[in-house]
Description:
The chain has one helix spanning 13-18, and strands spanning 7-9, 27-33, 45-48, 51-59, 67-74. It is 8% helix and 41% strand.
Amino acid sequence: xxxSWSKIRTQNIKDVKDYKDTAFEDTIDIxxxxxxxxxxxxxxxxxxxxxxxxxxxxxxxxxxxxxMVLVVKSVS
Length: 76
């Protein structure tokens, strides 16, 4: 659909332990600008480094509307 600037935040060791056996296991956070060409929904998929990801959670920036965080999980 479109591409966007992003910053990738991988899980640290504490997160890996805390998220084991949860919906957030093996997820990464993608920080993108809040205002995009289209509204982001969890029905969309992301592609990064040739790998596809489902959007697990969308965390919008309700205070400043600058950046949102997308929690994504690799498609098996």
